[in-house]
C-alpha cells in the first residue's frame, strides 16, 4: 500500500511529531528538565486551584498511570507537590511549587521564541483561519 503524503491524517501526524520534537529540543537546549507533556501538565496545574490526578488525566486525555509518572518525575524535581485533602485522605491535590512556577515561565519564554520561528511567513489572518478549521475538525471528529 502506497503512503499518501497528501492525506490530512499524514500531514497532521507528521506536523504534530515535528512540533513535539522541536519543542523537546528547545527545552533541552534551554537547560529545562521538562518534556512537552510535562510543560502542558504544569500549565494546567497553574491555571486550576484544585488539581487532582484524575482530572488532569481527563484534560490531557492520558491514562492515570501516565499522569502519575509525570507527576512523580516533576515532584522529584521539586516542580509540584502533592497535598492531602483535609476530608478525604485518598484525595491528593497537585500544586505548583515556586520552582515549578519559575520553570513554567522559562518554558513560556522558550516557546515564544520558537513561535516566531515556526510561524514565519504565516499571516495573522491565515493563522486565524487555520485555528477555526482545526476547531471545526475537532468538533466534527468528536461527534
Q: Using the 3D structure, state the CATH architecture.
A: Orthogonal Bundle
The first-to-last residue Cα distance is 29 Å
The total domain count is 1
Biggest sheet record: 3 strands, antiparallel
Please tally the helical runs, counting DSSP H or I stretches of 4 or more residues: 6
The residue-averaged pLDDT reads 89
Classification by helices and strands:
mainly alpha
Taking pLDDT < 50 over at least 5 consecutive residues as the criterion, the unreliable ranges are none
Estimate the strand proportion.
5-15%
CATH superfamily: Winged helix-like DNA-binding domain superfamily/Winged helix DNA-binding domain
CATH fold topology: Arc Repressor Mutant, subunit A
Order of helical and strand elements: HHEHHEEHH
Total strand count, please?
A: 3
| Spatial extent as radius of gyration | 18 Å
Percentage of helical residues? 55-70%
**Shape field:** globular
Strand order of the largest sheet: 1-3-2
| Top-tier CATH class | Mainly Alpha
GO molecular function: DNA binding; DNA-binding transcription factor activity
Domain HTH marR-type: 1-139
Keywords: DNA-binding, Transcription, Transcription regulation
Pfam families: MarR
Amino acid at each position: 500500500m502506497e503512503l499518501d503524503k497528501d492525506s490530512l491524517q499524514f500531514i497532521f501526524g507528521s506536523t504534530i511529531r515535528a512540533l513535539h520534537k522541536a519543542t523537546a529540543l528547545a527545552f533541552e537546549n534551554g537547560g529545562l528538565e521538562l518534556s512537552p507533556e510535562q510543560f502542558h501538565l504544569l500549565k494546567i496545574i497553574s491555571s486550576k486551584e484544585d488539581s487532582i490526578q484524575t482530572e488532569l488525566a481527563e484534560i490531557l486525555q492520558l491514562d492515570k498511570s501516565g499522569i502519575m509518572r509525570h507527576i512523580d518525575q516533576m515532584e522529584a524535581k521539586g516542580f509540584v507537590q502533592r497535598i492531602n485533602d483535609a476530608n478525604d485522605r485518598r484525595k491528593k491535590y497537585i500544586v505548583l511549587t515556586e520552582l515549578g512556577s519559575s520553570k513554567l515561565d522559562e518554558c513560556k519564554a522558550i516557546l515564544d521564541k520558537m513561535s516566531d520561528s515556526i510561524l514565519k511567513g504565516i499571516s495573522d489572518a491565515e493563522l486565524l483561519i487555520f485555528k477555526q478549521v482545526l476547531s471545526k475538525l475537532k468538533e466534527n471528529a468528536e461527534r
